[in-house]
Design brief:
Largest sheet: 3 strands, mixed
Order of helices and strands: HEEHHHEEEHHHHH
Helix content: 55-70%
Number of domains: 2
Number of strands: 5
Distance between the termini: 90 Å
Strand content: 5-15%
Structural class: mainly alpha
Shape: globular
Amino acid sequence: MENLQFTFLNNATPFLLVLVSKRRLLCSAFLLLLISCTSSPLDRRQVVIFSEAEMVQQGENLYRQIQQEEEISTDSRNTQYVQCVADHVIAALDERQRVNYFWEITVFESEQANAFALPGGKIGVYSGLLSVAQNQHQLAAVMAHEVGHVLANHSNERASQSTIRNIGVAAAQTLGISNSTLKALDLGTQFGLFLPFSRIQESEADSLGVFLMANAGFDPMESITLWQNMNAISGSRSPELISTHPSPRSRIAELRSLMSSALQLQQTATSKGLNPDCLTYI
C-alpha cells in the first residue's frame, strides 16, 4: 500500500508541477494587468509594465546604435534649421517635460521622408523629410507628432503589449491549446487588438502634436498640408482596417476637427511673442 501511494505521488508530480506552472503563468499575466494600468495624456487607458527609467535607457541605447549605423548629415545649414525647429517645439513643453529628458536631435543623411523620437527625448530626422515638409511649420508638425509619441508613453505601451501577448501565447501553449487555435490567437492579437491600438496611438500623437506646434507659435494649418504632401508621395497603401496608421483621409479629417482649438492656441502663443523664424535652405 505504501509503495502504491509512493508510485501515485511520483507519477503525479509532473502533473502538479505543470498545474502550478499554469497557475503562476496565468496569475502573472493577471497581475501585470492589475498593477500596470495608467492613462495617456488624452485620458485613454493604457497598460504599461516597464518603468520610465527602463524606457529612457532603452531609448538611449537604440539612439546610439542608430547613430553608429546611419550616416549623420554633415550639412550644417540643414542641421541648424532642424535644431531651430526642435528648440521651439521643446520650449513649448511644460517644465517637467523639458527637464526630465535630455533632448537631443540628429539629422541623418537619407532619402527617406521620416523622423522618429525615442523615450528620453532622442529625436532623429532624415534629410529626405526636408523636401516633403516644405517649411518650418510642416517640419514642426512632424517633430511635434513624434514628440507626442514620447509624451504619451507609446513606446512603453507597445513594448508592454508585446510582452503581455507573449505571456498569453505561452500560457495557451502550457494549457495544451492546439496549434491551429494558437495561430488564430496569434493572428487575433495582431489584427484584433494591437493594430487598432497602433492607429489610436497615431491619432493621439497627431492631436498632441498639432496642439504642441501651435503652442510653440507654428501654424497648425500647415499640418494638414504636410499630410497632403505625404499622401502625394505615399503611393499605394494597405486598407486602413489592417493598417497600423490612419489613412491620410482620416488623418486630415481629424486634424481639421482640431483646427479651431489649435488656431486659438497659436494666437495665444503669438500674442506672447512666440514667432518662430527658422529658415530652410532646401
